[in-house]
């Protein structure tokens, strides 16, 4: 039997399952890595995302070679041709691949026409395997992140003392919603200068013959495991202490605040979630960091990240087509060009994504996704947009975050109510409204903020469906208190806005 290993672009760890299964035979087991246009022509990806993935792959191939593996690194239009030739030339009888995170890609690999057996090994880049999550979820009547997270804390013994959560509480979210009322001075993010390999990729991406998105330079993401580890250390030394407190704040020109910027590296396999959780927990025990911050970041990684990956593999295959509210309005053009909108919060966040491919969680959820939901934009078009434009976006994390959490298009498989808010929330949690031509306090007259009239229009349009969700009763009660003439005025503004923007669509 001749084993060959195919390392995918999001599996860049020497400990990944396929490489690990042949550690002692690395001198004789060939490895292939393929940089292909097949996937990247599907949507207009952010140029920095292409640079990040291809540069990280090229660096990882070198790392493997230095570690004693024989690596064939191929640049091709598709995956199938180089694979078939390589299998043939090396007389491979078993192709080993760690199971990808993307379900469609798993099916695609399974039906590949190769002259050898294909073995998919369980993905070890998450703490919960697909089967373990299913065993947890299947017998349950309710699928709540909080229940899953507590189970994870106990199972992996994280922030626990004698079977109880450290500090007596599982959750410190109440302490983690401070608005940016005073001047904040967050640390600068760690930036890396492009080395020779990255510079070559930048040149290549600049001359790609298909549509891409965003600015390619300045490119300052890390592209190696060592750099990803430096980002983690930098986070612990400079950001962790305040991570929790201002987790939900949004500030112009301070795009990253105390966030970790770890998602691009976790999602490529350059960091393992366990090493992040262990390092943060160790810092807590040894350096006494504030518990709200420590628990806050651990909840994101041990809780949300693992939970949403579990959900992605647990739901039906057509989950990504869900559209509970039947929203079909097309994605406005300004999502692709921040200059085309005069809503300052959207403009600032979209500009930041053009420049870096990054926005933090509340910008994604309460600005971009909230806006799409209250306007009634197609969840599938929004998902495609997120997938193309974000530095850390992959199918597993898109489907659950955009379709499920952001758009509530699944009707509440794991969330108990949609995340919708008016300008009130944005004005409280950010300083965007200070430089906006709209007035966050107006909802129907001149200068009325679109977040306001769309918010009430959304509640009115879907009031019957929303009634079935107990947690919406309070806001539906507020809706009933609005004078019918004013509600009609807001609904007219919403219709006018939609018509105006639809007519501009290219
Ligand atoms: P931090 O705020 O520092 O959080 C630490 C880590 O927690 C993140 O690096 C991430 O690995 C993990 N995490 C936190 N929340 C989630 C979550 N909901 N799902 C998965 N991981 C989570 N995350 C992605 O990795 N890729 C995406 O494409 C993506 N798209 C999103 C789209 C929408 C509409 C929403 C609401 C969320 C999305 N998220 C996505 C989740 C989250 O917003 C990002 O993981 C986070 O903002 C990344 O920045 P950070 O590393 O600075 O995060
Ligand atoms: Fe956004 Fe409205 Fe505030 Fe302007 S006023 S920044 S559109 S929430």
UniProtKB/TrEMBL annotation:
GO molecular function, one term: lyase activity
Record region (Disordered): 169-190
UniProt KW Cytoplasm keyword: no
InterPro entries cross-referenced by the UniProt entry: Crypto/Photolyase_FAD-like_sf (IPR036134), PhrB-like (IPR007357), Rossmann-like_a/b/a_fold (IPR014729), UV-DNA_repair_photolyase (IPR052551)
Coiled-coil spans in chain: none
Origin superkingdom: Bacteria
Keywords: Lyase
N-terminal signal peptide: none
UniProt protein name: Cryptochrome/photolyase family protein
Organism: Euhalothece natronophila Z-M001
């Amino acid at each position: 039997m001749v084993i060959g290993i195919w390392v995918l672009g999001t599996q860049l760890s020497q400990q990944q399952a396929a490489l690990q299964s042949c550690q002692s035979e690395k001198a004789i087991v060939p490895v292939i890595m393929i940089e292909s246009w097949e996937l990247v022509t599907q949507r207009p990806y952010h140029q920095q995302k292409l640079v990040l993935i291809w540069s990280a792959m090229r660096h990882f191939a070198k790392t493997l070679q230095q570690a004693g593996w024989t690596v064939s690194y191929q640049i091709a239009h598709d995956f199938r041709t180089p694979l078939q030739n390589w299998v043939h030339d090396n007389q491979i009888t078993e192709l080993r691949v760690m199971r990808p995170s993307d379900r469609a890609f798993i099916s695609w690999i399974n039906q590949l026409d190769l002259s050898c057996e294909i073995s998919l090994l369980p993905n070890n880049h998450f703490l919960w395997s697909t089967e373990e999550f299913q065993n947890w979820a299947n017998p349950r009547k309710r699928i709540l992140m909080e229940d899953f997270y507590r189970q994870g804390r106990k199972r992996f013994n994280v922030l626990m003392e004698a079977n109880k959560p450290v500090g007596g509480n599982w959750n410190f979210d109440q302490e983690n919603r401070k608005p940016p009322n005073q001047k904040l001075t967050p640390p600068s993010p760690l930036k890396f200068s492009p080395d020779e390999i990255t510079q070559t990729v930048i040149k290549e991406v600049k001359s790609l013959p298909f549509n891409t998105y965003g600015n390619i330079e300045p490119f300052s993401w890390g592209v190696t495991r060592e750099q990803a580890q430096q980002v983690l250390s930098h986070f612990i030394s400079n950001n962790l202490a305040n991570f929790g407190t201002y987790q939900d704040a949004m500030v112009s020109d301070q795009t990253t605040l105390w966030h970790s910027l770890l998602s691009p590296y976790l999602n490529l396999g350059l960091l393992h979630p366990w090493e992040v959780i262990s390092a943060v927990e160790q810092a807590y025990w040894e350096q006494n960091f504030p518990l709200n911050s420590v628990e806050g970041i651990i909840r994101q990684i041990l809780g949300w990240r693992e939970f949403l990956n579990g959900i992605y593999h647990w739901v039906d295959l057509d989950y990504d087509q869900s559209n509970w509210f039947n929203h079909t309005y097309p994605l406005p053009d300004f999502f692709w060009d921040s200059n085309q909108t005069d809503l300052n919060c959207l403009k600032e966040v979209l500009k930041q994504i053009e420049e870096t491919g990054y926005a933090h969680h509340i910008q994604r959820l309460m600005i971009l996704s909230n806006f799409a939901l209250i306007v009634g934009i197609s969840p599938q078009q929004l998902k495609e947009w997120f997938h193309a434009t974000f530095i850390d976006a992959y199918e597993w994390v898109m489907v659950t975050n955009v379709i499920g959490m952001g758009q509530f298009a699944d009707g509440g498989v794991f969330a108990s109510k949609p995340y919708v808010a008016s300008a009130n929330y944005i004005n409280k949690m950010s300083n965007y409204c200070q430089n906006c031509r709209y007035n966050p306090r107006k909802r129907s007259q001149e200068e009325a903020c679109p977040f306001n009239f769309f918010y009430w229009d959304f509640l009115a349009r879907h009031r019957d469906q929303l009634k079935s969700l107990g947690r919406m009763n309070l806001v539906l009660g507020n809706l009933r208190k609005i004078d019918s003439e004013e509600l009609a005025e807001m609904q007219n503004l919403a219709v006018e806005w939609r018509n105006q923007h639809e007519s501009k669509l290219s």
